[in-house]
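S.,

Sequence below, as promised.
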Amino acid sequence: MSVEKVEILEGIKEKIQSVKIRMREHQDENHRLKHKNEELQQVVQQKQSLIDELEQKNQQLSLVKSIMADSEDTHDARIRINRIVREIDKCIALLNK
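The prediction came back faster than expected:
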């Protein structure tokens, strides 16, 4: 073989080695990114579970609050009715005198 052909072959070998090295680096990077993606997917699932749990608790609290509000309104209404009844009783007592 001539010197020129040997140099060309050596250049091709070097380029192939360079491509192999870059391919391995990209494969390693790809593997690392896939692993990172899996970890992040797990975190997303955990956060979604937490969100679902908190939304359920929020709905329960809203329900309890609405029930409590109705109880307070009922209590306030009873207090007002009792005041009115006492005033009526006072008026009746005054009329009977």
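DSSP finds one helix and no strands in the chain.

Coffee later?
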